[in-house]
From TrEMBL:
Organism from which the protein derives: Hymenobacter sediminicola
Annotated protein name in UniProt: DinB family protein
Domain of life: Bacteria
Every DinB-like domain range: 30-165
InterPro entries the record matches: DinB-like, DinB/YfiT-like
Length: 176
């Protein structure tokens, strides 16, 4: 698969525009580069620091990482269903219910990062296999239209969003 062109604004719900705009080039290249960026940001992080929250009521670093994994799985599943021509409307999910149920803080960073790598490899394998016709297919997720092309950008942009939060809100306070 060659470079994936950006989706039109009609190919995704306005809410996802933030994620789509965070991907300035090929989303597959971004997805391939993000694991190294994440590893770089987490270098030297202790298990205790993995439970750090930058403010009361916010997710810990471990919870944010598992949220990223869960969301990528769900978004890739949506891309698969729509790419295969399934027109069944796909339900949304409540991230604020998933995070505490994940029990992320009880897990090791090593375990979480292993799962992250596994999910990312599966996501890339799927997305790299898609034809232009499959990328152009549209379906419904969370009551909104979405194309497979847009899902590529949304997956990469969602992670870019959380990497930015890690850099801007978590890591400066840990370094202080």
């Amino acid at each position: 698969m060659s470079h994936i062109t950006p989706p039109a604004a009609t190919e995704y719900a306005p809410y996802y525009g933030t994620y789509v705009r965070l991907v300035t080039g090929d989303p597959l290249a971004a997805l391939q580069a993000q694991p190294a960026e994440l590893r770089h940001l987490l270098t030297g992080l202790t298990e205790e620091q993995g439970q750090f929250r930058y403010a009361p009521g916010k997710w810990s670093i471990k919870e944010m990482l598992v949220h990223m994994i869960d969301t990528e799985r769900i978004f890739a599943y949506r891309a698969l269903r729509i790419a295969r021509g399934d027109t069944t409307p796909l339900p949304g999910f409540e991230q604020d219910d998933y995070v505490p149920a994940s029990e992320a803080d009880a897990r090791s960073l090593t375990s979480i990062l292993h799962e992250y790598d596994t999910v990312r490899a599966a996501t890339l394998s799927l997305l790299e296999s898609l034809s232009e016709a499959q990328l152009s297919r549209q379906g419904t997720a969370s009551g909104q239209p979405v194309s497979v092309r847009a899902m590529n950008f949304i997956i990469a942009g969602h992670e870019a969003h959380h990497l930015h939060i890690l850099q801007e809100r978590y890591l400066p306070l840990l370094a202080a």
